[in-house]
Amino acid sequence: MERGEIVITRRTLTMKEASQWLGISYHLLAEKARKGDIPHSRIGSRVLFRAESLENWLNQQEELKLSR
């Protein structure tokens, strides 16, 4: 990398991208975000999801199901 060059790897997903990645509907994801059931960040009018946070959340959901 040359001096002054910036490389940014996008680490966030939009609502549409996150719903596709999770395999759930856009509306279900929006409802879960509104209720605070899924980790997300709101920046202005945009709702963003960190891929790492979604993976951790999925793992927690699986563990909860298995421990019942």
From TrEMBL:
Transmembrane segments: none annotated. Pfam families: HTH_17 (PF12728). InterPro entries: DNA-bd_dom_put_sf, HTH_17, SinI_DNA-bd. GO terms for molecular function: DNA binding. It comes from the Bacteria. Residues 13-61 form the Helix-turn-helix domain. NCBIfam families: excise (TIGR01764). This is Helix-turn-helix domain-containing protein. It comes from Desulfuribacillus stibiiarsenatis.
